[in-house]
Amino acid sequence: TTGFAGFARLPEPKKRDHDLVALVAEFIDTYREAWPAVDLRIQPSGPIRAGVDRDLLRQVLVNLCDNAAQAGAQSITVETTKDTSNVVVEVADDGGGVDAAVATRLFEPYATTRDLGQGMGLGLAISKKVLLDHGGDIELAATSSAGTIFRLTLPRTSDTQKEATS
User: Fold this and answer.
1) What is the pLDDT of residues 17-27, one digit of tens each?
2) Nearest 5°: phi and psi at 79?
3) How far is the CA of 19 from the CAs of 56, 92, 121, 142, in angstroms?
């Protein structure tokens, strides 16, 4: 009930200009001990700026890392890149992958592969809403028995600044 209520009351993002590489590095330093059996790391790159609500983005990363750990991942790598209009954050793990029966509805509320009482299936639905509210998106980029990659896209800072000033 708490999870559903939280989903219904997600705040509007308070977007600020951040270096996502630094934000991800800080996330890893802060949360590394939350999953002691997982090697949590960042793929190094130069500064990449985007307008994000750091707390909401942190929640998305927690959801993805927690799911990966639950799926048996021993390693999670976060890589941040950019293209002409977006910042791309990929979260890759070496867990057991996403079951094909769930993959098509993965971002819907209550879609879960966990046992009863082990989660409500709201984490990825919340993550999707957070990214959409930022003007971005999240997708299942790849999955197999060797692991999973989730791709988050966010508008680059210049796009966010135009939105904030208009």
Assistant:
1) 999 999 999 99
2) -125, 135
3) 15, 20, 30, 26
